[in-house]
Specification:
The chain is of the alpha/beta class and 346 residues long. Strands 1, 2, 3, 4, 5, 6, 7, 8, 9 and 10 form a 10-stranded mixed sheet that branches.
Length: 346
Amino acid sequence: MNHKIALTIAASLLATTALAQDKSLTVASWGGSYQDAQSKALFEPYEAATGVTVKQESYGGMSDVRLQVTSGQVTLDVVASGSGSAARAGAEGLLEPLDYDVIDVSRFPDAFYSEYCVGGDVFSVVPAFSTKTYGDNGPRGWADFFDTEKFPGSRGYRGTVAGALEPAMMALGVAPEDVYTELDSEEGIERALDKIRELKPNIAVFWTSGAQHAQLMKDGEVDMTTGWNGRFDNAAADGAAVSYNFDQGLLDYDCFAIPKGAPNKDLAMAFIAEISKAEYQDDLPKFITYGPTNGAAYETGEITEEVAANLPSSPANMAMQLPISLEWYAKWETTAAEMYQEMLTE
């Protein structure tokens, strides 16, 4: 009898172990300090709370998803993505529509989620400046950034069109809420390009990566540059003489999406729902200076007022900024990118 009981218990334990092994999903992000922060704030706490194993990978973006989906060999359940890349991938049929009956976005601003992707963190494109050159009196908004008489010195500017036209349009005096209306034509795009052409003699470097624009400020190679707020915070922590303001910053977000045909689609949906909760998102700023997308994360007491002051999605900072329009990029990015490259090679 005891032998039978022992066998029954052993069989039960094996079944339980097998079930736990079955409950796993594969999540891909971009590696480095960004994925480390996601792991500590989101992925590892999720594992502890649910018992589901999160197998982490680093990947090359939506081109990897496209290859998996088109070949019919999808191994990724969830991917981290830029909002624009996810919007284009969704339109291309590479992503599963998200179920917002499962994922609670009731406290998310509308700008931070879409049909195929839900925001995981918020960052801003801001004008950064050298405190050696300007002290604490750097540019406040894009008109200042483009004003080489008021703020003489060299500039860095993005070498691709994403986040490049909106600053020029605001420097022309267009109100933030009207920027994408004004850019909704080739004539409007050309108007923004003309403003960049005016600044071009002062642009020492057209940067192509976050690491590069941070290094420009660390090395003192330029006096001002556009770029991503978190990169400048990291540079400042490493001793760079750099600061910025959120005035007229461009709010953008990274998000989570599910590749079409993901092997664990339902579990992936539940995973995204869980890590979108405030009690996960309020930990992210402890590891990287990007803001939560869930507004309730600012109410849990984990994010102090001092920390919130430096996060792009805090209510006070959001009020000063322009959310990126995914609709505009879906419609115009290809055309605008060609026009932008022509301007660069003139």
